[in-house]
Design a protein that fits this description.
The protein has 280 residues and is of the alpha/beta class. The protein has six helices and eight strands.
Amino acid sequence: MEKRIELERRARKANQITELNLDNCRSTSIVGLTDEYTALETLSLINVGLTTLKGFPKLPNLKKLELSDNRISNGLNYLTTSPQLQYLNLSGNKIKDLETLKPLEEFKNLAVLDLFNNDATQVENYREKIFKMLPSLSFLDGFDCNDDEVQSEGDDDEEVNGNDSEDDDERSAFCVNGLEIDLDELEALEQRVKAKKRLQETTDGASTSKPPDDDNEVDELDEYLKELQLKESATASQSVIEANRASVQPHPSTNFAILLYWFLAILNLANAAYCKHYAF
């Protein structure tokens, strides 16, 4: 464990380290971890083979401690030198009864505790007793006191962001008979129709009880759909023209071959004329 600690330090001072991962380093006890690590906030000792916590250092700022998959059966009182502990994972150990967990009452900020795969979880009314023993506890074995599972912030953000993006896509446009209609343009169309109605009412006399004429709305919508169709047709025509132009236009390599052919032909003619001249 001492060599692993030195490797993880990377030449840093002990009081500068806030996170230390010693997983799988294999040791039956705490060796090489001292009170000098005063800034340490997260410590992971998963699957190390610990049988005791004797010698656990005084870590005044430690908030998260991973001790899963070891062989710890007692001695949790050695952890009380780290009073700021908020998260403790003891799953996969050898804790057999609730009495062994009594030292955890000293942790007034302990919010998350994991005891999965310990014999103590088989005690009758285990969850109810643990929540009563540790009033600050919010989650036990991944569930709160109402048996609601803890949800990570990342999942919540992904769900919210996913819904927002879907809503944005739904609000941005929709299709009618294969034509994509932008909602912003449709809103502008609605404003134009309303403006024309107000103008017509002002001209004809808005004091009459004559119901509004919907023909203008229909005409405006027809004109808008015709504009979209024209745009689609123009886009399709432009694509066809560009495709034809690309097919008609000779490839650059073809142009080079033609130029090379004429250059060689001219060179041959010049050579023939030169030879004929000196032959005479």
